[in-house]
Amino acid sequence: MPTILIADDSMFQRFQTSKTAVEAGYDVLEAKDGQECLQLMLEKRPDVLLLDLNMPALDGLAVMERLAAAGAMPARIYVLTADIQDTTRKRCMDLGAYDCINKPVDQGVLGKLLAEARALLG
Predict the structure, then answer these.
(1) Rounded to two decimals, what is the model's pTM?
(2) Beta carbons of 8 and 98 less than 8 angstroms apart
(3) Which listed site, 5, 29, 53, 105, has its alpha carbon 20 to 30 Å from 23?
């Protein structure tokens, strides 16, 4: 079963997203800040990362920069953000994000994206 890491400082967002990920067939790991996210990514090497941009310790952009530098990018990164600026989206994509998902997250849309990613992972 593929593994997903959900990194968000909002407990409610992690709960909602975890439920959707389990329904899509993932084992779920959770991180409450960017530092914990980076540590879990390097230790556990999950297949998919759902990454909030605005977190304490390290923001999502810094997490992606450090993962790239360590050669530890997952198969897919979906960035969760309330920042809808084109420059932010472009920066995320340049750093390796597969897609940016606007907050509040539509769990139906997220479920479809995760099912698609799972199918590609095998």
Answers:
(1) 0.95
(2) no
(3) 53
CB 43 within 8 A of CB 70: no
For residue 63, the 8-state DSSP code is H
Whole-angstrom distance, CA of residue 13 vs CA of residue 117: 20
Phi, psi of 105, deg, nearest 5: -75, 130
pLDDT per residue of the chain (122 residues) written in tens, 0 to 9: 999 999 999 999 999 999 999 999 999 999 999 999 999 999 999 999 999 999 999 999 999 999 999 999 999 999 999 987 999 999 999 999 999 999 999 999 999 999 999 999 97
What distance in Å separates the CA atoms of residue 90 and residue 68, rounded to the nearest whole number? 16
